Amino acid sequence: MRMIKMQNINIPSIALGTWSWGIGASGGDAIFGNHLSDADLKPVFEAAMNAGFNLWDTAAVYGMGASESILGSFTNARNDVLISAKFTPQMAGGNDNAVEELLAGSLSSLGADHADIYWIHNPDDVNKWTPKLIPLMKNGKVKYAGVSNHNLEEIKLAASILAEEGLKISAVQNHYSLLYRSSEEAGIIDYCNENDIVFFSYMLLEQGALTDKYSAQQPFPSGTRRGEAFKPDTLGKLESLIHVMRRIGSKYNASTAQIATAWAIAKGTVPIIGVTKLAHIEDVIKAAEVELTVEEIRELEIAAKETHVEVRGSWEKPMH
Fold first, then answer.
1. Angle at 59 between CA 32 and CA 111, to 5 degrees
2. Contact 293, 263 (CB under 8 A)
3. Which of 35-44, 90-99, 261-270, 310-319 has the lowest mean pLDDT?
4. Which of 217, 227, 232, 236 has minimal CB crowding within 10 Å?
5. Structural domain tally of the chain?
6. Is 37 part of a structural domain of the chain?
7. Does 62 fall in a domain?
């Protein structure tokens, strides 16, 4: 497996997401229609670790701690796991010390003494929250700082705040997929490449819409976030893109999900793939091996653009 250099550590070419682990507010049941237990997820964790995929992405807001607690029950006492955790400003509740306190809560749930990457989850008051990372980076509780859902101006502002203390942004995490390339169009990915920042792409499978498992005839579960975002008529518009993904996939003996992931890797990003089943780990292993040609990348991007489908999360704003 190819490894990516992030400052002084090597990370896998794909990170694994746990948004749909556990139930509760903003958890797997509400967003994805999942009801997964520790027993369901433990074999998934073990298979990923055995394959060398040891970077796990979570957040206190996922199931309001449920995701972190499940992950922590698996990672406790292991020193070969890399943890990516998040501070969500909306959880601060007017507490100026919220970054330190919420990190402490996350580390307790995770059974860890530090976060390898700690993200400011969204740009709600960059000037207020970014400086709160500084003491945590200096005391080793946070190894590397990241910002998520920030536009280019906000990333530069956060970087300048840390630079005053001799620190830097090491990672940016934004929604990025064949259907949603605004971070690329806004110059964010170029900025990251120029400044030794790793760009992590999340929702690159569009919560399943690009996996070829759903269609106008087989829609998402109703009453879920993805069911609302990708109604049957929207899924119908994706058929031409899915056809191209299938055709390219047949050359590599790869699924459409694997092709979408390989595309994100080919674009120089580290995809975050949500994993809930052993089959997802097989997808990740295969996707990491596929190397698309320049022509295939162009074909995929043209087909994606021709769908005229672009679904932005309710928490997102345009990147430019």
1. 120
2. no
3. 310-319
4. 217
5. 1
6. yes
7. yes
**312 within domain boundaries:** no
Q: What separation in angstroms does the CA of 305 have from each of 190, 226, 298?
A: 20, 20, 11
Averaged pLDDT, 7-25 = 84
Average pLDDT score, the chain:
91
DSSP letter at 45 equals H
Residues 6+ apart with CB under 8 A from 307: 179, 237, 238, 240, 241
Q: In the numeric block, which tokens belong to residue 301?
A: 């991007």
Rg (CA), the chain: 19
What pLDDT was estimated at residue 34?
56
Region 68-80: what's the mean pLDDT? Answer: 88
The whole-number average pLDDT for the span 65-90 is 90
CA dihedral 181→182→185→190, nearest 10 degrees, is -80
The boundaries of the domain holding residue 54 are: 3-307
pLDDT at 28: 47
Return contacts of 32-35, CB within 8 angstroms, 24+ apart. Answer: 32/207, 32/224, 32/225, 32/226, 32/274, 33/220, 33/221, 33/223, 33/224, 33/227, 34/276
- C-alpha span between 79 and 306 (Å, rounded): 46
Residue tagged 């960059």 (tokens): 126
Return the CATH number at 295. Answer: 3.20.20.100
Task: Report the predicted TM-score, pTM, of the whole model to 2 decimal places.
Answer: 0.92
**Domain for residue 317, yes or no?**
no
State the residue for tokens 């049941």: 29
Structure-model confidence comparison of residues 190 and 317, the more confident one? 190
Query: What pLDDT, on a 0 to 100 scale, did the predictor assign at position 157?
Result: 98
**Is residue 17 over pLDDT 60?**
yes
